[in-house]
From TrEMBL:
SUPFAM superfamilies: Putative modulator of DNA gyrase, PmbA/TldD
Protein name, per record: TldD/PmbA family protein
PANTHER family linked to this entry: CONSERVED PROTEIN, TLDD PROTEIN
Gene3D superfamilies: PmbA/TldD superfamily (3.30.2290.10)
One GO process term, biological-process aspect: proteolysis
Species this chain originates from: Streptomyces cupreus
Domain Metalloprotease TldD/E C-terminal: 223-457
GO molecular function: metallopeptidase activity
Taxonomic lineage of the native organism: Bacteria, Bacillati, Actinomycetota, Actinomycetes, Kitasatosporales
Length: 463
C-alpha cells in the first residue's frame, strides 16, 4: 500500500468519525545552486505528507480534528486516523462547521501514479546556464543563484464520496549578478512550470546592463519620488493585499476594506485606472488547483470546504472592488458571496507598453526612480494596510527617458490600496516572480506601475 490514492482509500476505511477528509500530498523536487560562475550543488528529493480531518457530531455541535504527518507508513496509518479522531473529540464545536462537499465529479486520473520531477527538467536549462557563466566571466561579472522545480500531486478523498486529484508544477529561478568587488548587485527572477521558457543568456544580458547603470552612484535623500515599480514589486504588494482581503475581517471593521460606519467597501472605486485584479485556476501558464485544498482552518479558509470547485474570480473589476475572500462559513456570516482563495493572481487592464518603454517616456525634469524589487515587507497598520519594506539589488535614476545611474536603497512606507488609487499608468501585464513571497506564492502576472509620489521614508545602507 504505497500508492497515495490507496492510502487515501485505506484511511477513509479506517475512519470511525462521522465525517472524514484525507489529503495525500506527494512531492518531488529538483534543484541547482551556483556561485561565482560555477555550479555548486544539485539535488533531488521525494516526500509525502498525509493530512486527516476527522469530523465528529456531538450534543454541543460539530467538531473537527486535523493531524498531518510526513512519511506515513502502512503501520502508522491507523494511529494517524485515531489521532485525528481524538483531536476532534477533545475539541470544542468548530465555528466553521459546514456539511462536507458533495456531488463533485471524480478526477479521471485519481487512480494514476503521482507525477514526479527529476533533474531532467534542467536538460536544456543547465547547458544554457553554463554558457551564461562563460559570458559573465568574460564580462567581469559573477553569477549567483538558485533554480528549483517542484511537483506536488495532491489526492483528496472524503467520506461523502469526493475523489479529486491535482498536479501542481512550480519552478522558480533567482539570479544575482555582482561586480567582483561586491559593490554592485542586480537581481532577476522568473516563475516557470517546466524551465522551457527560461533563458539564462537573456537574464545575464539584462543584469549586465543594470550593473553598467550602477557604475555611476547618486545619493538621494528620503522623500516622495515618481517611481516605476516593475511587475515583481507590484506582485509582492498585491499578493499581500489579497492575503489581507478577508471578508469577515472587513465586515468586523478591522481592515482597509471596512466601510466607515459598518459594512465593506465592495462596490467602491479603488483606482481610476481600468485595472482588473483576478484569479483563475485555468489561467494559461498559471494553472492552479481547481478546487479548495485546505489543510487547516483559519480566517477565510476551512477544512470543511475541501473539494469545493473554484472558478474565475474578479477581486477588482475595472477599478471597482468586487469580491473579498470568504469560505462558505464566513460568507454566511457576512452575507458576501462565497469566494475562496485561488493560488494565482493577475492584474489586467494596463496599456501595451513595456517597462522599458515607460522608462523612455519619462522626460520631465524631476528625478524618477526605477526599482528592481522589494524586500522584507511587513505590515504596519491593518486599518490602512500600510506596509514597510526595503528596496534591494538596484534602485536606478531615470532622467529624460534614460537611466543615468544607481541611487542608494530606501525603506518605504506605502499601502498597496493607496498605490492603486494614485498610480497614473500601468504597463503591459507579464508573468512575473514575486521576490518576497516566492516561497509561498509564485503564480502571478502583473504590469509595471507608475506612481507619482512613492514614499521613500528613509535611506537604507543595504546593497
Amino acid at each position: 500500500m504505497n500508492k497515495p490514492q490507496e492510502i487515501v482509500e485505506r484511511a477513509l476505511e479506517l475512519s470511525r468519525a462521522d465525517g472524514c477528509v484525507v489529503i495525500a500530498d506527494e512531492q518531488s523536487t529538483a534543484n541547482l545552486r551556483w556561485a561565482g560562475n560555477a555550479l555548486t550543488t544539485n539535488g533531488v528529493t521525494r516526500g509525502r505528507t498525509l493530512t486527516v480531518v476527522a469530523i465528529v457530531d456531538g450534543m454541543e455541535g460539530t467538531a473537527s480534528g486535523v493531524v498531518s504527518r510526513s512519511a506515513v507508513t502502512a503501520e502508522e496509518l491507523e494511529p494517524l486516523v485515531r489521532a485525528a479522531e481524538a483531536a476532534a473529540r477533545g475539541a470544542g464545536p468548530a465555528e466553521d462547521a459546514q456539511p462536507l462537499v458533495t456531488d463533485v465529479p471524480a478526477s479521471p486520473d485519481f487512480t494514476d501514479a503521482p507525477a514526479e520531477t527529476s533533474s531532467a527538467v534542467f536538460a536544456d536549462f543547465a547547458p544554457a546556464l553554463g554558457e551564461a557563466f562563460a559570458r559573465a566571466r568574460a564580462g567581469g561579472r559573477e553569477l549567483y543563484g538558485f533554480a528549483n522545480h517542484e511537483l506536488v500531486s495532491s489526492y483528496v478523498g472524503t467520506s461523502t464520496g469526493l475523489r479529486l486529484r491535482h498536479d501542481q508544477p512550480n519552478g522558480t529561478l533567482e539570479l544575482n549578478a555582482k561586480s567582483p568587488d561586491r559593490t554592485r548587485s542586480a537581481w532577476a527572477g522568473r516563475s516557470t512550470r517546466d524551465f522551457k521558457d527560461v533563458d539564462p543568456a537573456a537574464l545575464d544580458a539584462e543584469l549586465a546592463v543594470r550593473l553598467g547603470w550602477a557604475e555611476r552612484k547618486v545619493a538621494l535623500p528620503a522623500g516622495r519620488y515618481e517611481t516605476l515599480l516593475p511587475p515583481t514589486a507590484v506582485a509582492d504588494l498585491l499578493i499581500y493585499q489579497m492575503w489581507s482581503a478577508s471578508g469577515r475581517d472587513a465586515v468586523e471593521g478591522r481592515t482597509v476594506f471596512s466601510k466607515p460606519g459598518g459594512g465593506t467597501r465592495v462596490g467602491d472605486k479603488l483606482t481610476e485606472l481600468p485595472l482588473t485584479l483576478r484569479s483563475d485556476p485555468n489561467e494559461p501558464g498559471l494553472e492552479a488547483a481547481p478546487f479548495v485544498l485546505a489543510h487547516s482552518s483559519g480566517g477565510d479558509s476551512s477544512v470543511f470546504d475541501n473539494g469545493l470547485p473554484l472558478t474565475a474570480t474578479e477581486w477588482i473589476h475595472e477599478g471597482e472592488l468586487r469580491h473579498l475572500l470568504t469560505s462558505r462559513h464566513s460568507a454566511g456570516l457576512t452575507g458576501l458571496p462565497v469566494a475562496p482563495g485561488i493560488d494565482n493572481l493577475i492584474l489586467d487592464g494596463g496599456g501595451a507598453r513595456s517597462l522599458e518603454e515607460m522608462v523612455a517616456d519619462t522626460d520631465h525634469g524631476g528625478p524618477c526612480l526605477l526599482l528592481t524589487c522589494l524586500w522584507y515587507i511587513r505590515e504596519v497598520d491593518p486599518a490602512t494596510l500600510l506596509l514597510t519594506g526595503l528596496t534591494r539589488d538596484g534602485v536606478y535614476l531615470v532622467e529624460n527617458g534614460e537611466v543615468t545611474g544607481e541611487v542608494n536603497n530606501f525603506r518605504f512606507n506605502e499601502s498597496p490600496v493607496d498605490l492603486l488609487g494614485r498610480a497614473t499608468e500601468a504597463g503591459r501585464t507579464e508573468k512575473t516572480l514575486p521576490r518576497e513571497w516566492s516561497d509561498w506564492f509564485t503564480r502571478a502576472a502583473m504590469p509595471a506601475l507608475r506612481v507619482p509620489d512613492f514614499n521613500m521614508s528613509s535611506v537604507s545602507q543595504g546593497v
